[in-house]
Each structure stands twice: as C-alpha cells, then as structure tokens.
Specification:
293 residues, alpha+beta, 40% helix
C-alpha cells in the first residue's frame, strides 16, 4: 500500500470515530492542524511516495467508564499499529501498566493491518472492570459478571437492510460488534446488504445504535421480532430461554455464490434456502417483495 492509501484509511477511521463520539467531551483532536493537513493530503493531489506532513493525534474520553485513550497515527498506520495509551484515574500505577501491556498484546495479535482504535476502545471497556478496586488475579471473568447482571426481559431479532455493504471496515465492525454483544445471526455483504441479529433486546438495540451512525447510502430495520421471556429474576432460565429462541448458531458473514462485475451480487436462491433451513424464509418476501424458492 502507498502513503495515500494509508492516509485514506486514517481519515475514514477518524470520520467514523467522530460520528460515534460527536462532542468535544467525547473526542478531542489535540492537533487540529495535523487533522486538516491529513484531509488536504487525501483530497488534494498528494504524491503517494511521500507521507503526510504531520501525525494526527486525538483523545477519546469515556466518562461513564472513567478512562481516556490517547491516540497518535504513524504515517504507515494501519500497516503498523497506532500509538495508543490508556489513562484511568481509578487504577494504581501497577494496574495501569498491566492494562496497557495487555492492550498492546491484544492489538499486536488481532489488529495489525486493520484500523483498530474502535476495537481498542471496546477492549478497554470489556476489561477495565478486571482492574478496578481489585487485583487482576482476583477479578471475575467478564462472563461471570454478565450472568449476575439483571436478566433481560425481551428477546429480539432485527432484520436490517442496506443498499449495499462493501467496505471492509464496516464488515469487520458488524462481525466484531455482534460477537462483543453476544448476538447470533448473519450478515450478507454486497448489493443489497442484509444483517440479522438476535439476542437480548438491549444488546440488539446497542448493535443497531452503533451500525446506523456509520456512513450508509441507505440502511433501515426492515422487520423486527420482540418476544417476552417471562423469566424475570431468573438469570440462568433467561439464558436458556434466549438460546432456545435463537434461529442461528453464532454470527457469521454469509456469501452465496458472489457474481457480477465486482462480485457484489449474491445468489438469492441460495439466500432463500439458507433462510428456509433456519425457519425464517418468510422474511425473504419482506426484503424483496417476492416469494422465494
């Protein structure tokens, strides 16, 4: 890749982050000039052989979770990792050092070659509680903590329609967010793009709130299903009930014989068969206005 392609990825990620953290209290560009120069570099006639003149730097502030991420882009990012530092006033120096080391290890193992600031934010959110007011070794696992939370009261299944899903970063976000939120379902990239997520209503709503703020030509919830769980106060029973209502095992990106000039179109007959095998073929007509076969 060239410096220009790296700069384009950087600018796209900054625009995504700005849409998700729209106020200065959430995202602060500490060097406005560097950001303006990056934009001019991408939009102008920059030479791919020379890097941008300066490095964008910004802070992501999560008041609810009590931490700040300080981020700086090397010219070759995302081919190389960004410089990300975690700051949390609720941690001792030793705990903060350990959290930083684990974050660096996570990014090194999972994020090289991909934009990853949002992944870093989500990782810190998921792991910060392991360090607050207790040592790392004594902390319960995230799974143990989640089972002690207030059990959900409604199971939801959202059928989302997009004019198209091509962008690799968006496709990765859809996969990562569904996994982070414990949702099952599938996404079908191409034109049109289809996403189905199912699980606790609050997790489905959080997924939709993240997805809908990305830049889309058109995206909507085409159909939704909401089913009462009738298991208030019984955490383990709610988990069993949710699992019994799922039509999908885990979450996957589903491809159905891609074709067309850019490989953007899927075989809708195979999509119908995929839905039929999971007992939800009726949504095919909701999406396309015709009965599948």
């Amino acid at each position: 890749m060239s410096y220009l392609e790296w700069a384009e990825s950087q600018l796209a990620e900054i625009e995504l982050l700005t849409s998700m953290f729209p106020t200065a209290e959430e995202l602060e560009a500490t060097d406005q000039l560097a950001l303006a120069e990056l934009r001019n570099y991408v939009e102008g006639s920059a030479s791919a052989g020379s890097p941008p003149p300066s490095r964008p730097q910004f802070l992501i502030k999560q008041k609810l979770d009590s931490f700040i991420l300080s981020c700086a882009y090397p010219s070759e990012y995302p081919a190389v990792l960004p410089e990300i530092t975690v700051r949390c006033s609720g941690l001792s120096r030793a705990q903060q050092t350990q959290l930083q080391a684990l974050l660096n290890a996570y990014l090194t193992e999972n994020c090289r070659g991909e934009v990853c600031v949002l992944s870093a934010v989500e990782w810190v959110k998921d792991n910060l509680l392991l360090f607050i007011n207790r040592s790392f070794s004594e902390a319960p696992s995230p799974k143990e903590e989640s089972t002690s939370a207030q059990p959900p009261e409604v199971f939801s299944r959202l059928w989302i329609y997009s004019h198209h899903i091509y962008n690799k970063s968006k496709r990765k976000n859809i996969l990562d967010w569904s996994k982070d939120l414990g949702l099952s379902g599938f996404s079908m990239p191409g034109k049109p793009g289809i996403v189905c997520v199912e699980g606790p209503q609050s997790a489905c709503e959080e997924f939709w709130s993240r997805v809908k703020v990305l830049t889309w030509k058109k995206i909507m919830i085409r159909h939704r299903e909401d089913l009462p769980l009738d298991c208030q106060g019984e955490g383990s029973r709610c988990v069993e009930r949710i699992d019994s209502l799922r039509k999908f095992t885990g979450f996957e990106e589903a491809m159905f014989d891609p074709h067309g000039n850019r490989g953007n179109h899927m075989d809708l007959g195979q999509l119908y068969q995929f839905l039929n095998e999971r007992g939800c073929c009726e949504v095919f007509q909701m999406y396309f206005g015709i009965e599948g076969r």
